[in-house]
Design goal:
- By secondary structure, the chain is of the alpha/beta class.
- The protein is built from 17 helices and 6 strands.
- Strands 1-6-2-5-4-3 form a 6-stranded parallel beta sheet, with helices on both faces.
- Helix 5 links the parallel strand 4 (84-88) and strand 5.
- The longest helix is centred in the C-terminal third of the chain and has 21 residues, at 248-268.
- The termini are far apart.
């Protein structure tokens, strides 16, 4: 398993096979909820029920002596479990000095122990990471693509006996900013809600009622007004989002991103190619292509530059956040 970065799924598959060869693991990336689940799986794989008090060591505090703490911990044999598990859950592990002594420490971890480094985002260029790749297993877990999240949502709800179509699953992913931790919470909320209603299928109305707003769907509605000469509907949608306490900077950033995606969609002009290129679900890619077809490329570029100028006006204090966004919507609608 050396000399490569594993995905989270591949790492969990290895654990399912027993993981007998594991002694050194680094879990890093932007999807912290999935990383936490990997750590839970490691503990379940190696630590006997009730054995955490004796066979698990978790090092959280920042310390320049962190490798001395690691050295002390990994030498202790397990009492009741297959292996002792030592978890270092702090980015300060990158701040500590890493030389020949530390390299030798990682190279010679006892077979009776699994050392798990979970520093957060990680850094592939550091000596520590290169040593883990050389002597152990480096696992990179970043945010999943929309298409992957749609499958994850579908599979999780299916296990609970609940149906959800791809459009609703895509909407749920967007409502949660593609964050698995929030998606997991919303799935549990949906399960409880549908059980109380005696139903087993999620509808879009259910999501609208109990989940956060779908910013991407709202941005589609706002962008539909661009070039139409009418901005009432767009401003009404914006006001609805503001009443739900959606941060204006987040709305502005979402609209800006949407305009960039429309330009890409216009250039690609094919649902399947766009979905593969951008790792979007076919449903979302199709909506982008359909909306982009309403504009020519020059129009989309002009809209993009209008959004860019609006962003600059806010940063230079010319307009306040909300006024800048409302002004942008009116100008784009009338253009």
């Amino acid at each position: 398993m050396a000399d490569k970065y594993l995905s989270g799924n591949d790492f969990l598959k290895h654990l399912d096979k027993g993981g007998d060869d594991l002694r050194l693991v680094m879990l890093f990336g932007t999807e912290d909820f999935y990383i936490d689940n990997c750590i839970k799986s490691i503990k379940k794989c190696y630590i006997a029920p009730g054995g955490e008090d004796t066979d698990l060591t978790v090092i959280k505090q920042d310390s320049k002596e962190i490798f001395r703490q690691i050295a002390d911990s990994i030498e202790m044999p397990p009492w009741f479990s297959r292996k002792r598990v030592v978890i270092v859950k702090t980015p300060s592990v990158f701040d500590a000095e890493f030389g020949d002594i530390e390299d030798k420490l990682l190279k010679n971890i006892p077979d009776s122990c699994v050392l798990v480094l979970a520093p957060g985002k990680g850094d592939k260029g550091r000596k520590l990471t290169k040593a883990v790749v050389k002597y152990g297993t480096a696992v990179e877990v970043n945010l999943f693509s929309e298409a992957e999240l749609v499958n994850i949502i579908h599979d999780n709800l299916k296990k609970k006996g609940i149906e959800i179509d791809k459009e609703c699953a895509s909407s749920l992913a967007f409502r949660c900013d593609s964050q698995l931790r929030q998606i997991s919470s919303e799935i549990e909320k949906i399960r409880l809600y549908l059980n109380g209603k005696g139903r087993n299928k999620v509808t879009f109305d259910d999501l609208e009622l109990i989940c956060p707003p779908d910013l991407n769907a709202s941005v589609f509605t706002i962008t539909d007004s661009f070039g139409s000469g009418k901005c009432d509907g767009a401003l009404k949608t914006l006001n609805s989002l503001l009443l739900r306490k959606e941060p204006v900077p987040k709305l502005r950033a979402t609209l800006f991103t949407h305009l960039k995606r429309l330009i890409i969609a216009k250039d690609v002009s094919n649902n399947k190619e766009l979905a593969a290129l951008m790792k979007f679900s076919p449903y979302y890619a199709g909506n982008l292509v359909r909306q982009s077809s309403r504009f020519d490329m020059d129009q989309l570029i002009n809209l993009y530059f209008a959004a860019l100028k609006s962003e600059s006006d806010v940063r230079h204090g010319i307009y306040e956040d909300r006024i800048a966004l409302e002004t942008l919507i009116v100008k784009c609608s009338m253009s």
